[in-house]
Amino acid sequence: MTLLALQPVVSLKTAGTPFLGAPEAPIEIAVFDDFECSYCARAVPLFKQVLETYPGKVKLVFKNFPLGMHKNSRAAATAALAAERQGKFWPLYDLLFENYNKLNPQKIHELAE
After folding, report:
1. Global confidence as pTM
2. What is the maximal distance between C-alpha atoms in the chain?
3. What confidence tens digit (pLDDT) does each residue in 20-70 have?
4. From edge to edge, which strands make up the β-sheet containing 19-21?
5. Does residue 93 contact residue 80 with C-beta atoms inside 8 Å?
6. Could you count the other beta carbons within 10 Å of the beta carbon of residue 1?
7. DSSP string, the chain
8. Which of 2, 18, 58, 75 has a CA positioned 20 to 30 A from the CA of residue 96?
């Protein structure tokens, strides 16, 4: 078996950022997500599958990246930051992506509660 050493494309500060997986995993995937993006929502199960398939080897790091074309994405990102401060980021993350196509201020507030 040949091992391939890859250099990161970009060095990125991820300390203090919400993550799933092993804290010291050799592979770190930084995901820039928009909670109102259909493509981002479709990738959620794939990332969870990667974590399940490679336990202890992959760390998935979340970065907010609300896109201007999605009018509710900034409010969803703000709610996610508030949830993170309460230790509830990942439950809200799941709810926001489950409802990505129904987000509005009232729905975000409802999900955050």
Report:
1. 0.87
2. 54
3. 999 999 999 999 999 999 999 999 999 999 999 999 999 999 999 999 999
4. 19-21, 58-64, 27-33
5. yes
6. 2
7. --------SS----TTS-EEE-TT-SEEEEEEE-TT-HHHHHHHHHHHHHHHHSTTTEEEEEEE---TT-TTHHHHHHHHHHHHHTT-HHHHHHHHHHTGGG--HHHHHHHH-
8. 58
